[in-house]
Amino acid sequence: MAQTTTSPSQIGPVSTDSSRRARLAEFWYYFSENRGAVIGLFFFLFLIIVAVFAPLLAPHAPTMQYRDAVLVPPFWEEGGRATYLLGTDAVGRDILSRLIYGTRYSLFIGVIVTTISLVGGILIGVIAGYFRGWVDTVIMRVMDIILAFPSLLLALVLVAVLGPGLTNAMIAIALVFQPHFVRLTRAAVISEKTRDYVVAAKVAGAGPLRLMFKTILPNCMAPLIVQATLSFSNAILDAAALGFLGQGAQPPTPEWGTMLAEAREFILRAWWVVTFPGLAILITVLAINLMGDGLRDALDPKLKRS
Amino acid sequence: MSEPIVLEGRNIVRDYHIPGGMFSSARTVHAVKGVNFSVEKGKTLAIVGESGCGKSTLARIITLIDPATSGDLLIDGHKIDITKGGLTTEMRRKVQIVFQNPYGSLNPRQKIGDVLAEPLLINTNMPASERNERAMAMLKKVGLQEIHFNRYPHMFSGGQRQRIAIARALMLNPSLLVLDEPVSALDLSVQAQVLNLLADLQDEFQLTYVFISHDLSVVRYIADDVMVMYFGEAVEYGPRDEVFANPQHAYTKSLFAATPRATVDSIKARLARKKVAA
Fold it and tell me: Any idea where the ABC transmembrane type-1 domain is (chain A) (predicted)?
């Protein structure tokens, strides 16, 4: 037995101190192993800062129309002006300012949609997977029905019922995303439930609530975190699509997807009107996905190098 | 016969109903067909048999995980029926189990300290400091060290994990410990260490063991009484020496005959047989 205890330096930061701070340090140690995740995290933090300090950072008001500067190219192009760093759109609004303000909307949509669908999906999925029987059957058939609709169409119908607007669009998208979380959670719970450690916790006297949320659920989180980061980006895209169809964020809201949709007809004439909102969405989605990967690696002890 | 009887089973039956599908009718599988046994305090009952003979089903019934279809289960003289009414924590604390596979029986997201402290957290009102203290003491008792307290299960070998599983089972001071093939997933030298640990702990805490195994050499080492199961029935039941010296049932005889022997005499006899055959 003595041979198996390697020197502590090889094990990494496994301390005998279990305080919150030590746990945080341990989390950071494993998270920082993944360089992409760290870059993603810093970009995400940068986005948050931009969103919070948008009024200070933006050179112009996002809805201010400069009639003398319609479709001005970025400053390095011929005919560009230094006051409009990334150019202006068809009605003379500064694109950089709109992008900065758009960060607020995009992050807001991502956070709210993911939170609603994740929390709801986990609750329903754990109940379905733990109790099985008719409860499971009823829940899963309802989820199958939701999944049977094309997601955007269903969101569109929901928004049509609730009335157009950003809030209703977010609720609709959350409802559409929910079945994915329910299915993932249920499948993971079913496979974990029969494991010996769950039986052992039961023998130790743990009640159903404790078994569901303290024993089983933490072991099902890895796929859920990845799915959550993917939905974060999908939520931004779907909200943009709804905006394009006139059911989401209403103009002149500087939402990235809505900007993209408004600029559709200028793709050939003014590339900057489409490119910059598109790049903003792309980079944000990429950063969030990278961060999600690192998060999963850091949170799952099975993937830790020891 | 001076020691009190901790565990008694009277005519325990367990049937599994398999509901009929589209092409098959419903069936009933008799996993355990009327088994009787009793174990005194501080003794070990070994249950031996081949795969699928109902050993593990019986273990789950004794551990109060699954109910028996019929029959009486008495623990410390109290009749227990988990289908009627909830189980009191008092009863729950008396029986604990150690599983066969040490890789699946520990929650991969729980640190060892939390694994050990969890039973106390659920069943007692102890403050956290006392729980940790007791967990640490138990960790040392099963031969692990203080530095292991905040590690995750995946950082341990199979033998160490089985020690942790044993420690967890003992946290509530049970009177009865069900060991469901606790060493069959371990290699031989580690098997011996774990068996010695079990024997030491039995002496120290006056534990009663129900030891389920298919390995007769292990049974011979640890058991006081032996029960041989065959297709859900107890075909042989008695003190260890009696069963090993004078097996009555044909299945028991063939089981013993199938055990490889490594004594000098048996090797010589085998070589002699080989020579004759050649």
Answer: 103-292
